[in-house]
User: What shape does this take?
Amino acid sequence: MKIQAAVAESGARFSLQTVELDEPREDEILVRIAGVGLCHTDLVFAEGGGMLELPAVLGHEGSGIVAAVGSRVEKVKPGDRVALSFRSCGACDRCNSGDPAYCRTMPMLNFVGERDDGSKSISTQDVAISGNFFGQSSFADHALTYERNVVKLPEDVPLELMGPLGCGIQTGVGGVLRSLGATPGSSILILGGGSVGLSAVMGASIANCATIILAEPMPNRRELAVELGATHTIDPIANDLPERVREIAAAGVDYAFDTTGIPQVLGQVAACLGSKAVFGIVGIAPPGTNIPGDLMNMVTFGHTIKGIIEGDSNPDEFIPELVAYYKDGRLPLEKLVKTYALTDINTAIEEQSQGLCVKPVLIPEHGPTAEAQ
Assistant: This one.
């Protein structure tokens, strides 16, 4: 079938093109996309920093309505409202233990741009285009996905805003609630006030942390963090980060959560930690970045450094939990979101980089082809 998709060809620029999407195979689900979040990971791959070849259709925070299902699909039916998350195999020991974010085949299923058999589901003028990104490639008006990706949504939530639950929101909230296991009354330092960092602020508020510190250079994001539950904010450019953290939490923080991946920032965190503190890292650091901190300092004070993928989420369990927080007013994700037409994807990228929005959500128009601005 012919669909409209934002195609990445080089330099993180996208153009809206008419492409051919295969009909769903027996294990595939066709979803009419209502909205899709823009994530930093999409831009890393669009710049050629990932495993798949360009040109490619990216996008991995989609939500929409099931349009068709293959003969082996039992989990959903046409007409169901769904959020799309990452893909996992469902058969390995990690999946069977409830840790699908650490699926043994996670890279192959999510990052290589093709099906399991090496075929590509998207093409144009007989040229294959990389797709199947995170098992969805949802920068388009329709996407093919799988049962392990989809989570049903209730009727009483705004469908187009639910896509970011599948990655950025669950990474931030889950990173605090699930990966770190933050306890009531504890203290946490969150580094970076993008969508993942601000989701972590909301997660810390849900966890009833007593001290929630956000380090972020943009004033508008620090202000938003206070609205979302932060008790303190720090401008890391104008302040010595460890010194300022120790003014707030003299014994050091119980948890730290990095979303920046900036080596200079990572290197300051050890001096902010209290004894037995846990430091979780989700930020994408440059290749070759060393584990931050001094080994003997880590041993002496019992620090734990923990890599985190997707907030240790099991989407079938955690996305409904996130929806419940949203409906209860404890996860006001609309405060992070600014919507754009899918045709305006390049504008959304630029405005996000300038700090004019936190989480762009792209809305396909299901209309004629147009060039992205």
